Amino acid sequence: MKKAQILSAAGLLCLALLTGYPAQATDRFDLAVALKTLPLLTNKMTNPAKVAIVYDSASPESKADAESIQSIIDGGLEAPGNIKLVASMVDVAELTKLNGKQIAFLADGIPSADDRRIGNGASAAGVLTICTNIDCVKTDDCILGVVSKPRVEVYYSPAAAGRARISFVSAFTMLAKQVGSM
Amino acid sequence: MRKSLLIISGIVALSGYSAPARAQAVDYGSLESLFGEPITTSATGTPQRASDVAADMTIITADEIRRSGSRSIPEILSRVPGLDILQEGANTWDVGVRGYQQPYQPRLLVLIDGRQVFIDDYSRMNWDNLPVNIDDIRQIEVVKGASSALFGSNATGGVINIITYSPLYDKDNTVSASIGTQNEVTGDATTTFGLDGHGGVKFSAGGLAMDEFDTARPSGEVPGEIKHPYHRYAAQSSVFKVNNDLQINTEANYTDKSGNEADFVYGLVPIQMTSYSAGAGFNWQTPYGLIRNNNYINHYYLDMTYAPNITDANTLIVSQLEDQFRVGADNTFRAMLEYRHKDFKSNNMPYQYPQFAEDSYAIGGTWLWQITDKLSMTNALRLERNDTAMNGTLVADSYFPKNAYGQTYNTVSANAGLVYKMTNLDTLRATYGRGVQDPSEIENGYNNVLNLGGGVKVNTFGNPNLKPTVVEDYELGYDRKVPSIFSKLKFSTYYEINHDLIAYPTVLGSEGTGANGYLSYPTNVGDSQGWGGEIEIKGKHPSGFHWDASYSLAEVRDSGLAAAGLHYSGSAPEHHFRLWGGYTTGPWEFDAHGQYATSTDMLRTVSIGSNPTLVATAGYFTMGGRIGYKVSDHVTVAASFFNVTQDHLTTSAYPAIERQALLTLTGKF
Questions:
Q1: What residue spans of B116-194 are helical by DSSP H?
Q2: What ipTM was predicted for this assembly?
Q3: What percent of chain B has pLDDT above 70?
Q4: Of A26, B74, B88, B513, whose CB count within 10 A is highest?
């Protein structure tokens, strides 16, 4: 029994290590980094920008993170160029609500099984998907993944961007870490 | 000329776009804000984060430029460890790298927004004649070490790339006026017109007038009048967005200056110089990568207003075409073609204007390989073919016949570098550079009889048989962030060897006599080795303090240069300490800076017609500072001080520099 427990614990540890990017709550720094990518779009953002905060109602963790993001944005967070943000929460069960939005922040804690569905919905709506879960970018379901600490890194999926008809200036694509299928 | 235009047209046509155009501006501001550090293209030609480059690079930010209190770029560069500033007059300068100092410094290539402002006639810089408003500079990128694989000839000691604000992204509007000691008066203004997101047009203009230092000079040192420094310039640049994938850029510049500067034979001479330049290019995002085209022409007119009354004209035409693209996630490439035409003629001769011309054709590329998250490698290669020719009628009794000037030579430049990010705090760099320094147009193709007065005449000829100087350097670097004290520590050590250095003879007549007097022509005179390093700690505390302390060591050993008009060993301080600190509180800014440099031995010609001799200069200490006050969000007034410790300070073999103060009013809107 003890041996089984040790093996299980080791298995879970390996799984966590293989995943590589343990979920963490999205904070103001992550959002600030995400918003700083907007001036680097080839098509400039309208003002105000309509933002969807995507969560899974079956995941309390993701809902809590979405509410946290909503609170930060409602607190007056703006994109560079004094672009105001109008945010609303969107459940993965209601992805048609992405229509008319320009940006979709994916809350942390969304099960990876949802990533493909979100990616398809966002690309159909032409929405820029940004997350802190890099696996979503690696599978070409999200366009951008941001890491704000200890050093800012931006992960970029050209395939996901192409499907959503979204493009960035070339200097940005050379500086971002390109992942996913090429 | 017609051939040049045809070739440019051909390159542009091949690129698939019919309009002439010029390189774009990267949106440095947005990228720097996103990644939290300056962005540069000076290491590989492609955008990189400053902490990722495989080169010894210092980026001087706009804030550091402003807080330096200086209106002169060499004074700003004097804070960079490894750079040596030679001040020859109130507003004339040369900048050397890592112990290699001389007037008409040929080893440091300088560009403004990618356009060469280095002058090919004698291979030199006119730091007092740049078409740039100091307040319009976003950042100055300093790369130490050979970089000619990326930038071409003369980037053997390093490269300085001055980046101004983009008319498309930055909308810079600034005006400033200064008054100071030496009756100095300066004025600069920049205004940018946005085109509703479709582009921007920027205009800058300004100037400077002041008295030359009245420090003692040897009798007969400066023939004719002493030129009181003045400078004026006008510059225009624009970016037009044709669509999301295509931008077209244009620029035009005019500059004019006078001053007293040390020349290539180590004499201090009054000089007047005028320059014009124009350029255009494009940036085209295609499925095959980012295609960039850059074309420009520089024209310089030089008047050495002393006894020989040398007036020269120099033209440079450059056309560049490159493609930047990624292959997979980990490989970034830059493929490049370049055509260069330069010609030089002396205008004051009684015969038919001998005109030396050189056409260069280069092909090259850069490969940046992100091997792992922590390890990256950069490789760059440039192959260049150079064809030289002499037109017009040569001076009678020319030592080299006209057909000897028709030469072809090929050169190879290369760079390689590894960057290993050991931890989030530690980065290691190992780099190798092979740089090529072509002979200057004077060294290669001059053809004149100089009447130096007093019955001294020199038949001066360029030597068409010169080999280019090749510089190889090896460097190890280590950077460590020290968050506990809000600082970054930077350490580098290097070794370099210079092969086949070029110089005119030191002793007039040592090469014999011609029909009209002494004979003089340059030769490949020998080699030189340099080694040393720099250590710097730089930081900024949230409470408002900032600091930058550094030490540099530069040791140079010449080999075979004893009888040549070239002397690098000891030409710059072996030891150099620098300290800069500042504090901000409310609307007030306080800065103080000091330097101690050890002794030098530099060649100097004290009167026209004499031979240069070594002049020893003792070590010196100097300090200065700035007090700034923000009158409003848009207006700042600042008092700046330089060399406050002494009335007159001897820092080199050239006249002592004086204490200076400057009061500057700046508006930014």
A1: 148-151
A2: 0.85
A3: 92
A4: A26
Test A150 with B424 for CB contact under 8 angstroms.
yes
Chain A residues in contact with B324 by the CB 8 A cut-off are 170, 174
B154-168, B305-319, B550-564: which range is least confident on average? Answer: B305-319
Interchain proximity A175–B328, CB inside 8 Å? no
Q: Which of A78, A169, A177, A181 to probe by mutation at the B interface, max B CB count within 10 Å?
A: A169
What is the residue range of B550's domain?
2-668
Classified by CATH at the fold level, domain A24-178 comes out as Rossmann fold (3.40.50)
User: pLDDT tens across B126-137, in order?
Assistant: 999 999 999 999
- As a whole number of angstroms, the distance between CA B431 and CA B416 comes to 6
The nearest alpha carbon in chain A to B25 belongs to A171
The pLDDT assigned to B89 comes to 92
> Do residue B244 and residue A36 have CB atoms under 8 angstroms apart?
no
Q: How many domains does chain B have?
A: 1
Burial (Cβ within 10 Å: 0-12, 13-18, ≥19) of residue A119? buried
**Paired tokens of B488:** 């970054």
Q: Retrieve residue B58's tokens.
A: 């210092």
Interface membership of B326 toward A (CB under 8 Å): yes
Q: What is the mean pLDDT of chain B?
A: 89
State the smallest CA–CA distance between residue B480 and chain A in angstroms: 14
Distance from CA of A169 to the nearest CA of B (A): 8
With 90 as the cut, is the pLDDT of residue A127 above it? yes
Under the banding of pLDDT at 50, 70 and 90, the label for residue A24 is low
Amino acid B349: pLDDT: 54
Q: Reduce the secondary structure of B290-358 to three states and give it as a string.
A: EEEEEEEEEEEEEEECCCCCEEEEEEEEEEEEEEEEEECCCEEEEEEEEEEEEEEEECCCCCCCCEEEE
What the block records as the tokens of B198 is: 């479709």
Please tell me the predicted confidence (pLDDT) of residue B304: 72
CATH number at residue B414: 2.40.170.20
The partner residue sitting opposite A151, judged by closest CB among B31, B289, B424, is B424
Q: What is the pLDDT of residues B621-637, one digit of tens each?
A: 999 999 999 999 999 99
Of B36, B47, B329, the CB nearest to A171: B47
